[in-house]
């Protein structure tokens, strides 16, 4: 730290504590929390200065290899904030919370999700893997329970029996996924962050998040790929 960083106040500490205990915080909640922390600590509050407030905290977290990161929900495009440990990959971080067998199930689930067309894996496909695990075979009932825990802990999210990566998981694991799935992991052509649930151009293969697709094509008279200009054949969400 060069001594240039702004001072950490109690307001900053309180904000960081809540963020850490939440695991992930939606943007509007983070803005409310920012205001609350500043007012409680009687320090200057400006509603448009959340990012500055966070970068002050980040400059103090740097020596600890931690960082508050901003990400986007692939469902609705809303901003979210999570505290990420840069010194550990997600797998070592998860290793303290789960058994080796549970971790193997998670990794296999992640494979299915990332290798899928649309960023989802069905519970049937995941449960079919549970008795092929190398560490220890798992009964389907047992695997169902483990999946439930992954959803509660915000690593996976589930809709109608289909699983995808939770926003928290994407924020925390972006680097891990990009380096471990180099051939298949895509960055969104619009916002340049990792896209799990995405639409893909049939002509050139670029991908876009659904909220980014919606926003991008709102301004276009006809949907054409931003890269190759071919007609966009997917249904605009």
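Sequence proposed for the structure above (237 residues):
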């Amino acid at each position: 730290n060069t001594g240039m960083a702004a001072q950490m106040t109690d307001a900053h500490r309180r904000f960081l504590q809540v963020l850490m205990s939440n695991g992930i915080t939606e943007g509007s909640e983070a803005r409310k929390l920012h205001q609350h922390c500043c007012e409680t600590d009687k320090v200057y509050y400006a509603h448009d200065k959340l990012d500055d407030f966070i970068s002050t905290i980040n400059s103090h977290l740097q020596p600890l290899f931690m960082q508050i990161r901003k990400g986007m929900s692939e469902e609705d495009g809303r901003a979210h904030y999570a505290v990420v440990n840069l010194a550990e990959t997600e797998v070592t971080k998860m290793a303290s919370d789960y058994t080796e067998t549970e971790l193997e199930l998670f990794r296999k689930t992640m494979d299915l999700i990332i290798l899928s067309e649309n960023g989802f894996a069905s519970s049937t496909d995941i449960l079919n893997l549970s008795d092929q695990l190398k560490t220890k075979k798992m009964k389907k009932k047992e695997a169902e329970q483990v999946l439930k825990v992954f959803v509660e802990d915000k690593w996976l999210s589930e809709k109608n029996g289909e699983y995808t990566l939770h926003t928290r998981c994407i924020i925390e694991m972006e680097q891990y996924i990009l380096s471990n799935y180099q051939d298949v992991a895509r960055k969104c052509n619009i916002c340049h962050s990792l896209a799990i649930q995405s639409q893909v151009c049939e002509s050139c293969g670029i991908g876009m998040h659904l909220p980014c697709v919606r926003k991008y094509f709102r301004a276009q008279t006809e949907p054409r790929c931003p890269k190759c200009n071919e007609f966009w054949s997917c249904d605009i969400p």
